[in-house]
Structure formats: structure tokens, C-alpha cells
Amino acid sequence: MPGTLTLCATPIGNLEDISMRALRALREADVIAAEDTRNSIRLLNHFEIRTPMTSYHEYNKYDKGRVLVRQMLDGGNVVLITDAGTPGISDPGEELVRMAWEAGITVTAVPGPAAVITALIISGLPTRRFAFEAFLPHDKKERRQVLSELQKETRTIVLYEAPHRLKKTLQELAGVLGKAREISLCRELTKLHETVMRITIGGACAYYEKEEPRGEYVLVIAGKPAEELKSEAVRQWESMPLEEHMQMYTDKGMSRKEAMKQVAADRGVSKRDIYQALLED
Q1: Per-residue pLDDT tens over the stretch 33-82
Q2: Which CATH number fits domain 4-113: 1.20.1280.170, 3.40.1010.10, 3.40.50.720, 3.40.50.2300?
């Protein structure tokens, strides 16, 4: 009978955040697959866990993934952990999960700390809807594409960033989202020097011109107000001649009446207003 793959969340800083269930899962596993064994050995030693450990990271995720799947098919139970927090979030764990499901192996999880959720709930920004982007891509073209998409994002945005790239990222965000946009910079979460700075993106840029970033950051950014997005769309339509706007829809097969209704919706006015304007033209 195949074994099980268990994704086990571990502390993101404060070791007291480990759960009893996580400790039991780590002790009872046949093998622990860790993103960085040098980092994880400190956690295991602290809790006197002697389970064998193997490395599973971005550069061996396919080859090692096949090895781990074979172990589970032979009845072994594998626990996957990341450097800190919940595996499968912005790390290679998602690939092992995919491989396990394809092999018919049961996948389960021991929930626990996650930097994205921790930062979100203490940020003071809306939490009901959010867009998690993790680390922005390094590839310039892909990075520009993601930033362009974020420009119209109305949900709260959550990003991860390393200290040596923080200044550049803040400058890019200021250029795309505007300096006035609210941001919470959550630093060293759950650790001794945890700080949360609520400020504007422009204010953050100015602050870090004088201060050197230290520690790992989670950036929680206010989404674009929906009304602002709607106003921008209306202004864009208003720059188009009315008859040209109508023509755009009638060319798609709409009747004159249907086109008038859609044009009114685009411009945020009543159909009667469009009808009157067309008459005057």
C-alpha cells in the first residue's frame, strides 16, 4: 500500500509556533524532504527529532521528486518542509504534490505558519480579497508583465522581497501603482525584531533612501479603488468619438439599440443620454 505525502508547516521565525501535530508528523515520517537541510537541521535538533532528512529544492525537484515518489509507492511516508512556513507556497513543493497525485499517492497537510497570511492580517489593509504574487519575476519582460497586471488590481496585493532588492522593487511599484498608494512593510515576522511600517509607497522609497533594508520583507499593498478604475475606463471611452464607439459594436453584429445600451454602460451614462447625443450629432 502506498505511503503518504504530508506537507508540514514549520515556524517562520519563532520556534514556539510549531504545533504538536507538526512535531508528531516529523517524528513519525520515514523521511523528511527539506528545501535546505542545513537550515532545517537546526529545527530538528531543537526538538530532538532524529528522522532521516534529504534535500528537495528548486534544482533537484524533478530527479529527487521521482525518488521520493518511488519511496512512497513502496509504502514510505514522506514529510515535506520548506525553509520556513508552509511548503508549496513560493517553493518547489508544488511540483512534488503534482507528482504524488499523478502517482495515486495521498497528499495531506499539517497547517501552520505562512508569512503571506501573517502579514496580511496585521497589515491594516482589507483582507477579504487579496492577490498573492510571492516574489516578482527576475526576468525583465515577465516582471514588466506582472507589474502591468498589478496596475489594475483592485484586491490587496501581497509580495515577498529580499532586503537587497527592496529599494528597486519599491521604486518600480511607485512608478506603476503611484507614490500615494498605501503599503504595509512587514519585516522579520514573528522574530525578535518584527516591525510593521504603514506608509505610502512614496514614503517607503524616501525612508529606504536613508535606511538600509535588513531582514526578509512581506509587502502588503492596497488595491486600486474600484471607482478609480471605473473612472479611468470612462475617460478612455469618452476620448473616442461617439459614432465611432457605436460603430465598434455594430460591426460586431449588435443592433443599433443594443450598441447604444453598451455604449451607455461604457461611458457611465443613461441610454437616453446617448440617444440624445447622437440626435444632436
Answers
A1: 999 999 999 999 999 999 999 999 999 999 999 999 999 999 999 999 99
A2: 3.40.1010.10
Residue 262's pLDDT is 78
Write down the CATH number for the domain with range 122-224: 3.30.950.10
pTM reported for the whole predicted model = 0.81
Domain-wise residue ranges, the chain: 4-113, 122-224, 227-280
Query: Are 20 and 47 spatial neighbours (Cβ–Cβ below 8 Å)?
Result: no
Strand ordering across the sheet containing 53-55: 53-55, 31-34, 78-81, 4-8, 106-110
DSSP E strands: which ranges in the chain? 4-8, 31-34, 53-55, 78-81, 106-110, 130-135, 156-161, 182-187, 195-200, 217-221
pLDDT digits (tens, 9 = 90+) for 165-193: 999 999 999 999 999 999 999 999 999 99
**Cross-strand pairs, 6:** 79, 108
DSSP of 90-101: SSTHHHHHHHHH
C-alpha 76/C-alpha 106 separation (Å) is 12
pLDDT tens, position by position, 3-39: 999 999 999 999 999 999 999 999 999 999 999 999 9
